[in-house]
Amino acid sequence: MALKIPFFLLLVFLLSFPSPISSRAVPETSQTGVVGVVYSMSTAGLPPPKQVADALVDAGVSRVLLIDTYPEGIAAFNGTPFHITIGVNNSVLPLLAANRSEAIRWIGDHIIGPNVAVGTISVGHDLLSTYIALYKYLLPALRNLQAAFTTMGLDMSLTTSCSYDIICPGFPPSEAHFNSSVAETHVMPLMEFLTETSSPFLIQLYPFKLYNSDVIPRASTGLATFDSRPGIFLTDPKTGLVYQNMFDAMVDATVAALDKLGYPDIRVVVAGTGWPSEGTDDQPEASPVIAAEYTERLVSRLSSGAGTPALPDVTPVAYIFSLFDGPMVAGMPTAWNWGIWTKDMQQKYIVDFASAANVGGRARRTLISAAAGWAAAVALFW
Ligand SMILES: *[C@@H]1O[C@H](CO)[C@@H](O)[C@H](O)[C@H]1NC(C)=O
Ligand SMILES: *[C@@H]1O[C@H](CO)[C@@H](O)[C@H](O)[C@H]1NC(C)=O
Ligand SMILES: *[C@@H]1O[C@H](CO)[C@@H](O)[C@H](O)[C@H]1NC(C)=O
Fold first, then answer.
1. For the chain, what is the domain count?
2. Which atom of ligand 3 is nearest to the CA of 179?
3. Ligand 3 pocket, 22 CB below 6 A?
4. 379: which of 86, 142, 237, 277 fits an S-S bond (Cβ 3.0–4.6 Å)?
5. Nearest bound ligand to CA 177?
6. Predicted pLDDT of residue 24
7. H runs (alpha helix) in 180-242
8. 43 Cβ inside 6 Å of ligand 1
9. Which long-range contacts (CB under 8 A, 24 or more apart) does 95-98 make?
10. In the prediction, which pLDDT does 10 show?
């Protein structure tokens, strides 16, 4: 049944926005909750994957991003209810790029279990920034996997995961664009592929990293950690949109960068975000207390179902980096601990995964874009 909206209400709605609105339908991916965890199986000393998978079910987690996967590890997720994303190691790229037969063989050896519901395969990590030499394998690998899926009758999203380093400048969101040294040559062909296959764009966003740079000179820890006290916000001088936390600003910057390149409809998924509980001595913000604040507030912010200032209809989806201490974030000292669970699977913080499990993304989105005149008025607040 079509939803009838009284005309006057529609008018009030339209008039209440000072900027032009464009509505676009985007294909709905199967949404199962908005919070996931990044689980690297190859960290030494972890419990067996089957125990981890069971504990994740008990904790009410609804999405898992497996990195550094191996077949027995994936098999541990047989029959679990998660939306599973598999991160394919950079070292596998040349093989997948070789030809479709190799891709079929790799899928058979790694992905196909009797009962593993893989939703997304993310091929390669940070290829647009750190591992640019491997980029040449990316699209051939994606196309071979796509052809393999067709042959094998499989249906999964195919994408890659990037670091926020390729977005510049880091703030304000409306100014954001992809680094021009890769935008047209590398990012655009990838976005063509993602559009063609209705796949999401995966990006890792660390307010911790941005906060520790001089990208936002006036940024406070509060802005980075979802502190909701009054006075903690930044205004985008061009759009007038008000940002109460850096996570939302970074999501919108990614959307703005995609928009500038001509791909406003690609769904952005945050494939890694978190806060270290331990770091080097010169970095007191890497503490258990602040890590707990970030993680707990991130989950409640996502569970609220609210969209971002520029995309009020789209609840962001994010994977917490990471389940256990161990694997490092590119550009961060290896010793830092990002895990939310200890190695004996005790929660370091109380993270309410279950409340995030029933929130889904929405099919229609409204992109609020800049209105030049209005922007001039609010620039004073920046
Ligand atoms: C991923 O690749 C790196 C080297 O590129 C390797 O050291 C590591 O063992 C690989 N992980 C897995 C699970 O294959
Ligand atoms: C596919 O690539 C592999 C590795 O380069 C090669 O050994 C094999 O002969 C190729 N198969 C076909 C059908 O081209
Ligand atoms: C863009 O990428 C190039 C190559 O990685 C790098 O040298 C440059 O500093 C980047 N530009 C910005 C603005 O981040």
1. 1
2. 1
3. no
4. 237
5. 3
6. 26
7. 188-196, 207-211, 221-224
8. no
9. 96/123, 96/137, 96/140, 96/141, 96/144, 96/145, 97/136, 97/137, 97/138, 97/140, 97/141, 97/144, 98/144
10. 35
Residue type, 287: S
Establish whether residue 180 lines the binding site of ligand 3, counting it when its CB lies within 6 angstroms of any ligand atom: no
Query: For residue 225, what are its two tokens?
Result: 């950690």
Specify which residues 381 forms β-bridges with.
none
User: What is the reported pLDDT for 265?
Assistant: 94
Number of neighbours of residue 304 by Cβ within 10 angstroms: 13
Measured CA to CA, the distance from residue 172 to residue 174 in angstroms comes to 6
Residue 10 lies in a domain: no
Ligand that lies nearest to the alpha carbon of residue 91, given by its number in the listed order = 1
Q: Residue 147 corresponds to which amino acid?
A: A
Looking at residue 335, its pLDDT comes to 64
Residues of the chain below pLDDT 70? 1-32, 113-116, 212, 214-219, 327-335, 360-382
Q: How far apart are CA 178 and CA 186, in angstroms?
A: 10
Pocket (CB within 6 angstroms of ligand 2):
98-99, 101-102
E strands along 286-332, which residues? 318-320
Ligand 1, from 91, 92, 127: best to mutate by most atoms within 8 Å of Cβ?
91
- How many whole angstroms separate alpha carbon 356 and alpha carbon 36? 9
Q: Is position 16 within any domain?
A: no
Is 144 part of a structural domain of the chain? yes
The CATH number given to whatever domain includes residue 165 is 3.20.20.80
95 within domain boundaries: yes
Residue that is written with structure tokens 């042959």 in the block: 151
Ligand 1 centroid – CA 91 distance (Å)? 7
pLDDT at residue 355, as a whole number: 81
* Residues written for the chain: 382
Q: How many CB atoms lie within 10 A of CB 147?
A: 15
Query: Residue 89 Cα, ligand 1 centroid: separation in angstroms?
Result: 6
Alpha-carbon distance of 286 to 295, in angstroms, equals 13
Atom 12 of ligand 1: nearest residue by CA position: 68
**Ligand sitting nearest the alpha carbon of 144:** 2
pTM of the model: 0.85
Residue for token digits 């972890």? Answer: 46
In angstroms, rounded to a whole number, what is the distance separating the alpha carbons of residues 339 and 265? 32
Residue 227 structural domain: 23-381
